[in-house]
Design goal:
The protein has 12 helices and no strands. By secondary structure, the chain is an all-alpha fold. It has 2 domains: 8-29 and 145-234, Helix-hairpin-Helix base-excision DNA repair enzymes (C-terminal) (Endonuclease Iii, domain 2, Orthogonal Bundle); 38-138, Endonuclease III, domain 1, CATH 1.10.340.30.
């Protein structure tokens, strides 16, 4: 929710303060998907839809060992791919997408993952969210990743009132410097997974008590709130 009477300038200052506070809370925040190459990150991010990163990280090592390149995955038997990625859920669609994107990488991009958003979103199963993850973490190109956590927190912080990911992305771009977009995305995702939960946020354990206009929608008692905080070990 937007703070009543808050000017654009005041909103931008508060957004900067939130960013600093959350960065202090999670100094080691980084992509929680394991990968060695842009291709691996691309596939892992597609598999992470409606699935935890922790589960994806259990599935991808044997998948990448057997199919380490777009060429290998493009020619794999679809049933074999489905079997290997089944624990990630929606495995029929995901298997088709990661094979189809591998084939398109071969035919359109010489087997290389493109390093720009316009080309990335032409790949099967790849939207702006996935593209920005790959750009930010594999290529060092700043981007805002509006997943469910980022969208929820942006609305709770009063940064955006929209449910549309692209509108949220545009709103937040105005508040935080471009070179921090990837870092901001990861920080909000970490905070959403650990403290600012969808159903019952741990408000009493949050470092943003004085900055968040939504403080109080969750558990405010500090002891009770601490019990709601998810430790890193449960997520990684």
């Amino acid at each position: 929710m937007r703070v009543s009477g808050e000017s654009e300038q005041a909103l931008k200052r508060r957004a900067g303060s939130i960013f600093k506070a959350i960065r202090k809370r999670y100094p080691d925040a980084d992509c929680e998907l394991d990968f060695d190459t842009p291709f691996q990150l691309l596939v892992a991010t597609v598999l992470s839809a409606q699935c935890t990163d922790k589960q994806v990280n259990l599935v991808t090592p044997p998948l990448f060992k057997k199919y380490p390149t777009p060429k290998k995955l493009a020619s794999a038997k679809i049933l074999d791919i489905e079997t290997m990625i089944r624990p990630t859920g929606f495995y029929h669609n995901k298997a088709r997408n990661i094979q189809a994107l591998s084939q398109k990488l071969l035919t359109d991009f010489n087997g290389q993952v493109p390093g720009n958003l316009d080309e990335l979103i032409t790949l099967p199963g790849v939207g702006r969210k996935t593209a920005n993850v790959v750009l930010g973490h594999a290529f060092g190109i700043p981007g805002i990743t509006v997943d469910t956590h980022f969208g929820r927190l942006s609305r709770r912080f009063g940064w955006s009132a929209s449910e549309d990911p692209e509108k949220v992305e545009r709103d937040v771009m105005k508040l935080i410097p471009e070179h921090e977009w990837t870092n901001l995305s990861q920080l909000l995702i970490w905070h959403g997974r650990r403290i600012c939960h969808a159903r019952k946020p741990a408000c009493g354990a949050c470092p943003l008590v004085a900055l968040c206009p939504s403080y109080g929608i969750g558990e405010t008692d500090k002891v009770a709130a601490m019990k709601l905080v998810k430790p890193d070990s449960a997520l990684r």
